[in-house]
């Protein structure tokens, strides 16, 4: 087995970079409402192949806004359920439609596909451009389907840091807590993309910040497939995913053979 991936236990799928929000804190920068999205069938096949060789403990779908493409999301989670992945997560801002019938239908489909942990991105940044009414309706629909749901806010500085954004986030969280939806610890905003463009005054110039999503290249425990199929220097649309994983080497050891 490739020694650099022997501890692999998590798979993530970036469904699309398209998003319904225009958040100031987004590390990916500006988003459009449309664009490239993942091939759910190819992704589902990759899930089954990876799970046949590795003990995968969790799988996540995210974006952009992943529920702009619910068919692809559900294919992936159905495969994860079939392969008995214990934790099957999705991160969503909850705003993919204003049609209550469609919202209820997608909540039901998520439950049927085996999603068992939904992280709802609600905070001062998301709610600058995303209305609360359809997000709350989605949250109620998810609760009705019995899927565990929690809020996943973004904090500027630490949660306890005093600034207008965190104050507004606390106010928004109270509205969802009144609905019986608990808050996760959330994320600390990393100075990248839009955050550097719009929030630079809140970061220490020359300060050291650790990217929370950075993997140790010599001990890969989580892999992420991009909308175009890219993964670890390969592409699942073009090459068998197990071959990609088996051939992976850290960037500075590309000439090493296994």
CATH superfamily: Aldolase class I
Tell me the structural class: alpha/beta
How much of the sequence lies in strands comes to: 5-15%
Give the terminus-to-terminus CA distance: 9 Å
- The radius of gyration over CA amounts to 19 Å
Overview of this structure, please?
- The protein is α/β, with parallel strands linked by helices.
- β2 (58-63), α2 and β3 (87-92) form a beta-alpha-beta unit.
- Helix content is 31%, strand content 15%.
- It has a single domain, classed as Aldolase class I (TIM Barrel).
- The chain has helices at residues 40-53, 70-82, 100-113, 132-144, 164-177, 194-198, 241-247; strands at residues 10-16, 58-63, 87-92, 117-120, 149-151, 154-155, 187-188, 222-225, 230-231, 234-235.
- It is built from seven helices and ten strands.
- The strands form three sheets. It has a six-stranded parallel sheet, with helices on one face.
């Amino acid at each position: 087995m490739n020694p650099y991936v022997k501890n692999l236990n998590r798979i993530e799928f970036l469904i699309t970079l398209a998003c319904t929000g225009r958040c100031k804190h987004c590390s990916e920068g500006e988003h459009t409402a449309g664009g490239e999205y993942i091939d759910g069938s190819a992704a589902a096949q990759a899930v089954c192949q990876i799970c046949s060789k590795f003990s995968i403990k969790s799988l996540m779908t995210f974006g952009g806004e992943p529920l702009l493409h619910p068919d692809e999301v559900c294919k992936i989670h159905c495969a994860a359920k079939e392969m008995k992945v214990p934790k099957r997560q999705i991160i969503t801002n909850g705003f993919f439609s204003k049609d209550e019938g469609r919202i209820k239908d997608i909540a039901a489909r998520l439950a049927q596909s085996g999603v068992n942990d939904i992280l709802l991105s609600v905070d001062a940044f998301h709610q600058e451009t995303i209305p609360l009414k359809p997000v709350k309706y989605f949250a109620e629909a998810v609760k009705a389907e019995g899927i565990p749901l929690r809020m996943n806010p973004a904090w500027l500085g630490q949660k306890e840091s005093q600034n207008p954004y965190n104050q507004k986030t606390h106010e928004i969280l109270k509205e969802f807590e009144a609905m019986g939806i608990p808050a996760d610890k959330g994320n600390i905003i990393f100075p990248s993309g839009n955050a550097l463009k719009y929030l630079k005054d809140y970061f220490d110039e020359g300060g050291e910040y650790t990217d929370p999503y950075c993997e140790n290249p010599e001990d890969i425990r989580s892999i992420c497939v991009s909308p175009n199929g890219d993964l670890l220097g390969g592409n699942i649309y073009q090459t068998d995913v197990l071959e990609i994983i088996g051939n992976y080497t850290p960037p500075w050891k590309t000439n090493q053979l296994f």
